[in-house]
Amino acid sequence: MTAGQLGVQIIELLLIALPIASISWTITHEEVFREPREFCARCSKQSRHVLVRKFFYLFTCEYCFSHWVTAFFLLITRYELIFPDWRGYLLGLFALVWMANQYMSIFDRLRLNIKRERVEIKGEEQDVKRKTEAPPRAA
What's the predicted TM-score (pTM) here? Predict the structure, then answer.
């Protein structure tokens, strides 16, 4: 393997991990899938059978779900990392899962920061509003 081929594989790793992260995050966190996710959460806690509980848990955990999304993407892209055989698929699987989870962590951190900033701005707006509406004090 040449350095150029490895460079292409790294770029592919970074690019293929993006839709994996997006799909995993959307299904496990976003409002559009809230009802199915709540159903899966209930089944993962209330089922009598361990395998059923574990199966439904996969749809509530972004890390767990990203493994299955990655396996699907490996099937459609045939992505191999370093080795041109089953070892390349195995390395690709775990590298893609890791990279997708890094993207999801970054996205989660960004959302938290944006939410914190919105709360701070709202608090400052309320302070300004209270100050402007407060009656003048007698001196």
Answer: 0.77
